[in-house]
Amino acid sequence: LMRLLLDELVAPGAWPAVVAPALGLIAAGAITGVSPSVGYILGARMDRRVAVHAMDRLYLATGQLSGMWHIEDPSFRDRLRIAQQAGRGGPGQLVQQVVNVGRTTLTISGFVVTIAALDPWMALLAAGAGVPALAAQVRLSRARADMQRRMAPVERREAHYADLLVSVPAAKELRLLGLGELFRERMVRQMEAADEAYNRQDRSEEHTSELQSHHD
Predict the structure, then answer these.
(1) Using CA atoms, how far apart are residues 84 and 50, in angstroms rounded to an integer?
(2) 66-124: per-residue pLDDT in tens?
(3) DSSP calls for 121-175
(4) C-alpha pair distances (Å), 74 with each of 144, 158, 166
(5) How far apart are the C-alpha atoms of 128 and 91, rounded to whole Å?
(6) pTM, whole model, 2 decimals?
(7) Among positive and negative, which fits the CA dihedral 96, 101, 107, 109?
(8) How far lies 38's CA from each of 20, 44, 48, 50, 159, in Å?
(9) CB-based contact 125:46 (threshold 8 Å)
């Protein structure tokens, strides 16, 4: 639209033809300005609806399990806790990541096609340059998922100690027996252990990002 507008502006005696590309450019600018707000509203609405649906499916499946051994099994409770956390925001994040991948793929494809028209070998080199970055991102994603699984027992114990400190039946006994300080210290130790593990993961991801930047 900008190209058409400039072409019409420099053309002699073509002012009436300027109106159409100018109006189109104004409309495109308005859509570009409004689309982030509309996208945010629709994205938030989608996240809330997906969270309701995911929690409904999760607890429906949990309620259909026979017996109590699942509920009493610590490993099952860890998996349930991960499902509770991921079920609320995970689907929305997945959709957003798919959109981002599609947008990036479209941009890179256009870039590679443009280079291929000039030099096919350079296009091949440009396409291959993204393979290490993709492999690094896959490795980081698996590391994050593994970290979440390993931290699930720690976070479960932390939540358990925190619940003991504030729940009415347990709080009465803790204060009567003077055990509040003990469970508070245990809760803090679990929080510190999780914090240190996540810090190591953050440092590893930062190191990988720096290597990717140097490679680029």
Answers:
(1) 13
(2) 877 777 788 888 888 888 877 777 777 777 778 877 887 788 777 778 888 777 787 77
(3) HHHHHHHHHHHHHHHHHHHHHHHHHHHHHHHHHHHHHHHHHHHHHHSHHHHHHHH
(4) 21, 14, 22
(5) 30
(6) 0.52
(7) negative
(8) 26, 10, 16, 18, 37
(9) no
